[in-house]
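User: I'm preparing a small set of examples for a lab meeting where we compare how different chains pack in three dimensions. I only have the primary sequence for this one, and I'd like the structure in token form so I can line it up with the others. Please keep the answer compact; I'll paste it straight into my notes.
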Amino acid sequence: MKILLVEDEKGLIITLTDRLASEGFDVVSAVDGKEGYDLASSESFDLIILDVMLPKKNGYDVCRDLRQKGVSTPILMLTAKGETIDKVLGLKLGADDYLTKPFEVIELLARVEALLRRSPGKADTAVNGAFRFGDIGIDFKKAEVTRNNTPVDLSAMEFRLLQFFIENRGTVHSRDDLLDAVWGYDAMPTTRTVDVHIAWLRQKLEENPRHPQFIQTVHGMGYKFVV
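Assistant: Understood. Below is the structure token output for the 227-residue chain.
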């Protein structure tokens, strides 16, 4: 599984990276909030370990902006502050858990494992980088899709949209939510763009695109992915 560590203390970065790697995790680190936000919003991670006190963009703002963008990756916040109000603020902004510095690495590992267990949708797509539904197979590491073992040609945006649906399956997403999560705020597409890409995905992946089994329309609300 892939973990993003957003932390500016070099010693802690080395310690946590080494320990997490020894437990089988692939660790990517960022040394400031802006870099962490950019990585978390552009790449797929199974968990984010996010320090509160960061240069350029603090952890609270990173957490809030990621949630507003539609990134649902579990977030474990690290804070040097022990006051209840700081912990509550982090949770209200969308963090899943918090850990107060200084802490024992073994406790952090326990929190990491607990969060990953509570996030089955994210975890089972990333255990081996693969996912299957119907006659469709997906290799996330290679960004490859097959249907009945025959390659399916998806555009980069179609693949990102499909991956978002899979990682958030069962949840209804409005067109605006999908625009923010998949295309991003700066892309400036229209909600019609979402409809067109979903129509293309259905043509390529559904047995009967007119009556889709997996990418379903929820009238008056948006779309959801069901398996």
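A couple of notes for your slides: The longest strand covers residues 2-6. The radius of gyration is 19 Å.

User: Perfect, thanks.
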